[in-house]
Give the backbone structure.
Amino acid sequence: MKNGWPTITDKTLLLGFGFVLFLAVIPPGAGGYPVDMDKLPHQGRNSYGCLVCHLNPAGGELTSFGGDYMINDFHYDASIKQKDSDGDGFSNESDLTARPASHPGDPASHPFQPPGRLAWAGTLAAVLVLLAGGFSLVIRNSKPHP
């Protein structure tokens, strides 16, 4: 201190300059929870987190859904909801609202679909045919009691 005022040393100046440079090179939004995820169903808080849009949880390269979402200016509207970014046959909306979670940027990930009524009806018909066939065999092979 000189005359009650702190003196600026080379070390202080270098640290201050380094901090300003550090702030200048950090991309906006880096290191924080992306605000744009709040626009997604469940606020993007499914089991994939940042990986819904990025290939790496730290950010950087985008998934097919992340690219489409960015091209759509981070608006989650009808056009992005209806689109099938990963080409798996399910819309982004189906992927994002699925329980358990399905990834809208991974073609190997699909929403769980329980068997439809036709599948259940086919299974029931097969069981009935087997039971009826077995019952007819029992009747044919039975002998009358003397």
